[in-house]
Amino acid sequence: MSGNSNIINLTRLRMEGVTKSFSTVRVLHGVSFEVGVGEVLGVVGENGSGKSTTMNIIAGILAPDEGTMVLDGHKFLPPNRRAAEKTGIAFIQQELTVFPNLSVEENLLLGRAPRVSGALPFISRKQRRTRAMEFLQAVGLDVNPGTSASQLSTGERQLLEIARGLSIDARVMIFDEPTTSLTNKETERLFALIRRLKSSGIAIIYISHALNDVLQLSDKLLVMRDGRVTFHGPKAVMTPEQLIVAMVGRSIDALFPPSRGTVSKREETPLLELRGVSEPGIVEGINLKVTAGEIVGISGLMGSGRSELARIIFGLDFHRQGQIKANGASLTSGDLSARLRSGMAFLTEDRRHEGLMMDASASENMALAALRSFSSSIYGRLQTTTLKPALKEMAGRLHLKCDNIDTSPARSLSGGNQQKVVIGRWLLCQPKLLILDEPTRGVDVGAKEEIYALLAVLVAQGKGILVISSEIEELIGLCDRIVVMHRGCIVSEFNRVEFDQKKILSAAFGRAKAV
Amino acid sequence: MKTESIVQILNRILRWSPLLFLCVVAIVFTILSRQFFTISNIQAILVQSSWLALVALGMNFVLLTAGVDLSVGAIMYFAAVTVSLAVPAASVWVVVLVAMLVGAVFGGANGLFIVRLGIPPFIATLATAFIGRGLGLFFSGTQALYAGARLATVGRESWLGIPAVIWFAAAGLLVSLALMRALEFGSFVRAIGADHEGSRRAGVPIARVTWSVYVLAGAFAGIGGLISLAQTASVSPAFGLNAEFLAISAAVLGGTSLFGGRGSVWGPIVGVVLITIVQDGMALINANPYAYPVTTGIVIFIAVALDCLRSSLTTRVERKQIRVVEPASA
Questions:
Q1: Which end of chain A has fewer CB atoms < 10 Å from its terminal CB, N or C?
Q2: Is residue B328, in this structure, part of any structural domain at all?
Q3: Number of domains, chain B
Q4: Whole-prediction pTM value?
C-alpha cells in the first residue's frame, strides 16, 4: 500500500498489435496499449470503435486473431472467461451478472464457496458468511450477506460485482460504463472505491462516455476510433475538446442522396407530436415534432433512451405523463393498434428477434402487416390475386436481391436485404410516418446506399420519417433535423445548416451545445 | 419510486400465497365437513400425498433450471413394471434401490439428450415418455402386474407409529433440502434457471448440473412409482398416467416458477398437499366425482395465474433504468 509512487512504473498488462475480425469485417487493427500497477487507464471512443471487443479479448470472452498480451511479465492468452478470472482479470460489465434469486453471499462466491472440509462437498455456511463479510466490507457494501440480491439497487449490485472481483484476487479490473445507472452519490462512492483499489496495486481500465469522469479518474488515456488507437498517453496533455477530436474525424462518404434543400415550413398539423412525454426512470419531458416531408434524426449514445423512446412512441411501452399525437389526434399510452390505424410504422433495431420470421419467405414476411388490407371484407379470405403482384412490385421497388421471394427463407438473405424486407412490410401498409431504429445496422455499404435513396423517395412523397442511429454521419447525411438525447432527455436540437459532428457528439456526451 | 415499493410489497405477499392458499382451502373444508380436520384424515391426506410428493420434489429441480420433464409418469410405470417382474420377492431395500436406479438411468438418458444433443427438454422428455411407457407395456405384455407380498405390506404398515410411505416422502424432502441448501449445487440450479447466459459467464458447470437435475427427477420418480405400487399393490397400463402434469402443477402451486430460478424446496410439498386436500375434501362433502378434476383444474389455474402475475411484477422491478431518480433526501 505504501510507496505507490514507486510501483506505478511497473507494467501490469500490455497488449501489442492485437487484431480481430468478425467473418470478413476487421474490427481491430493492431491495438496496443499498456496499463501499470496501481494505474487507472481511461478508455474512450464512439460506439463501435472497438473498445468492447478489446476488453472482451482481455477477459477471455473473445480470442484475438493476432497480437500478444503480457500480464505481469508472463504471456497471457485466456481461453475463456473463467481462465481469465483465475489469472486475475475482473470484468465488471455494463450488464451486471448478478443473479437476483440468489443471496448476496451466493452471488459473491458462486462456484467458490468454502467447504466444510476438503473431501466433502458440503459448503460451510459459517466460513462463507465470514468471507463474504470481508469482501463486502472492502467495497463498503453494508448489507447482510444473506439477503436476496434482488433487494440491492443497481449501485449496490455493482459494488457486489466489484467485491466478486476482489474475491478472485484481481490484478486488473475492467469497468465498462459503470456509472450509467448510478445516482450521483453512488458514483462518488464508486470513484472513492476505485482510488482505493488503485492504491492497493490493482490496474484499472475504465471505459466511459462521461468524459469528465474519465479525465478526473485516470492517469493515462486510450482513445479508439474504428478499431484503431488514436491516442495513448498521459492524460495531462488532453482537454475534453481534444478528446472529442481524437474520437471523431472521419470523412463523410458520398453515400447519401443529394440534399433536398430545407423543407418549406408549412403550417400544418404534424404527423407526430410529443408534448412533455415522461416515464419515470426512462425518459423525461420529451417534446418532438415530425411533419410531412421531413426526416428527423435522434442521436444519442447507447443507453440514452433513444430506443426506449421509439418504443413508447409506437405504443410498445407505456408512458405516464405527456401527450403523443398523430395527425393532431391524441393517442393513448400503449395503444399499438391506434398507432397502426393512424399510419405509423416501426422498424425495430432487433431485426433478428423482433422483426423477421427467419424461416418464412420474403413474401410472407412482407405481407404480414398488410394482410388485412388484402383480405376480402366479409370472411377475411386473402386476395392472392391482388397481393401477389403487390409483393412483386414491392420487391422490385426495394431492389431486393433474392432468388425467389416466395420460397427463399429470410434467413438466406443478406443483412441489407433482410432490412429491405422489413421496410417493404411497412411500405405495403402505406404508412404516413416511419420510425426506424438503426436501419442500417449490419447492412453492407451498397444496401445502405439503396436504403438511403429509398428514404429520400419516401419523404419526397410526403411521408414523415423518424430515424434513430448511432452513426452520426448517417444522421447528418440523411436528416433535416437532429435531436440529441442524453440520459433520457432531449438535450439539444440541430437544423440542417447547423449540423456539426463534433457538436452533436459533445451534446450526446452530455456536454453543453456550444463547445 | 413509490409505486415500485407497492410492487415489491405485492411481490412479498405473493411469495407466501401458496401457504395462505392452502390454509384458506383447509379452513373452507373444515367448515364444510366435520370429518376434515381430524388426525386420521390428516394422516390419510399425507399418506395419499406421499408418492406425488416424491415425484414433485424431483420435478422441482428440473423446473428450477427452467426445464421440464414430461417423462416422470412413464418412469414411474417403467420402474414399477421392472420391480414387479425382476425382483418380485426381494427385500424392501433391494426393491427401493432397483426402482431408484431404473429411474436414475432413465433420467440420465433424458439429461444426455438435452445436454449433449441440445434437444429442448419439452421435446426430449416427451419422446422418452412414449418410449418408457412403450417399453413398460412391452415387458408387462400390457397385463396388470401385482406387487410382491413384502412390498404390498410396506404400503400399509407403520414404522414408529408413522405410515412407512410418509417416511419415504420425508426422506425425499431431506435429500432435496441437503442438495439445495448444503451443496453449491442448489445455487447453481437456481442460477441456471434465472440466467442461462449469465451462469455461463459466471463459470457455473451448466452441463453437469443440468444433467444431474434430470437424473434426480428420474430417481425420485422411480421411488414415487414404487410407493404408488406399494399402496395400490398393482401396476395397470395406466399406472402413473398424467403424473407429470400433477407433479408440475404441485410444484407451481407451491410457488416454483415455470420460468425457472424461483421456488423453494418445501413448495412442492405444499402444492401436493393442496391438491390432495381438494380431492379428499370433495370426497368428504360427497361432491359429484366428476367435479374433482374440474376443481383441481381451477386450483391449478389460479396458481399458474399467480405465477405469471409474479413474473411480470418481477420484471417490472428489475427493469433497467436510464434516468436515475435521486432519492428525495439526497
A1: N
A2: no
A3: 1
A4: 0.74
